[in-house]
Amino acid sequence: MSDCKEKIINNWFDSITSNSLINYKGDITSDVITDFVSRSEKIFESDNTLDNFKKNTIHIFVECVQNLFHHALLISEKNIRFGAFSINYFDNCVTIVTGNYINSKMKQLISDRINQINSLSKEELKTLYRLILNNEEFSEKGGGGLGLIDVSKRTGTKLSYEFLNINENIYFYILKIKII
Amino acid sequence: MDSIIIEGTPKTPSINFDATSGKIEIKGRSIPENSIEFYKPLVDWLETYATAPLANTVVNIQLEYFNTSSSKCILDIFKKLENIAKTGNAIIINWYYEEDDEDMLEAGEDYQSIIKVPFKMIEIEE
């Protein structure tokens, strides 16, 4: 990964974390997830306004960071599974933003998946969730294929995403979730 | 048949599967990265229990959080219980949810729609 591309990611990270409640970038390990879930809970419990968002935010946050854990591309030269995330509170809503490197072949799969989810009504999401819950399939990485559907079902808002082009084979995938 | 008793952790629920009393409990939070690894011994235990179950089995599920990979494993648990019910033994699943936690109630209803075992939705105070 060139210095120039790292600078793009650093600038993006600075732009999303200037007013964040909690943020991190680096290797996404099981211990990092445990630590940040605990820290996020404490932040949300310590503030009456945020406390109303706590349950939904923590649930969605767990799904998001575990998606990074399972799907972020391994950066071989550093031997880390690089991911970044931030939780923000602004204008009466919580946003969770995540970013991770992906292969170019994943780009189309992710955008198709999110566009499909965004096109569904609340009832349709519920039906799809139950269908996949009962399909007895696990991905090779242990995921159930339910994560983004569950997130969308809980927020009631559309998922937004973008891809930063790193090189012809690698993209940086950014997912933004708004909880109202 | 030995019971399974597991203490809860920040990512895994406390477990009490007791073949002597026919009481099966999962409580706390279930957000491990590898849900299959955690739940496989529980599913295996139920398969053995199903060979000589008690006439009445009570299942208490009281979860604060669970991730979507756990949700599939919990369904596997319920499917084993459904098999026991099919052999004429009584199973009741008590699904606890905190007041105002509509998502947890809905999660219970999702299972109720799939599994042919009586569910009792029980609201508890936060």
Please give a structural write-up:
The complex is a heterodimer of chains A (180) and B (126). Chain A contains seven helices and six strands; from the N terminus they run H-E-H-H-H-E-E-E-H-H-H-E-E. Chain A has 180 residues and is of the alpha+beta class. Chain A has one domain. In chain A, strands 1, 2, 3, 4, 5 and 6 form a six-stranded antiparallel beta sheet that branches. The longest helix of chain A has 18 residues, at 54-71. Chain A is globular and about 45 Å long. Chain B has a single domain, classed as STAS domain (Transcription Regulator spoIIAA, 2-Layer Sandwich). Chain B is globular. In chain B, strands 1-2-3-4-5-6 form a six-stranded mixed beta sheet, covered by helices on one side. In chain B, helix 1 (35-49) runs parallel beside helix 2 (68-86). The mean pLDDT of chain B is 95. Chain B contains three helices and six strands; from the N terminus they run E-E-E-H-E-H-E-H-E. The longest helix of chain B has 19 residues, at 68-86. Chain B has helices at 35-49, 68-86, 102-114, and strands at residues 4-6, 14-18, 23-30, 56-66, 90-98, 119-124. Chains A and B meet through helix 2, helix 4, helix 6 and helix 7 of A and helix 2 and helix 3 of B.
* CATH fold-level topology of chain B: Transcription Regulator spoIIAA
- Look at the helices and sheets of chain A and give the structural class: alpha+beta
- Kindly report the name of the CATH homologous superfamily of chain B: STAS domain
| Structural class determined from secondary elements of chain B | alpha/beta
Percent range of helical residues of chain B: 25-40%
- What would CATH call the class of chain B? Alpha Beta
Order of helices and strands of chain A: HEHHHEEEHHHEE
The total count of helices of chain A amounts to 7
Secondary-structure blueprint:
The complex is a heterodimer of chains A (180) and B (126).
Chain A (H helix, E strand, L loop, with lengths): L2 H15 L2 E8 L2 H16 L2 H4 L2 H18 L2 E2 L4 E11 L2 E11 H15 L3 H12 L13 H9 L4 E6 L4 E10 L1
Antiparallel strand pairs in A: 1-3, 2-3, 3-4, 4-6, 5-6
Helix pairs in contact in A: 2-4, 4-7, 6-7
Chain B lengths: L3 E3 L7 E5 L4 E8 L4 H15 L6 E11 L1 H19 L3 E9 L3 H13 L4 E6 L2
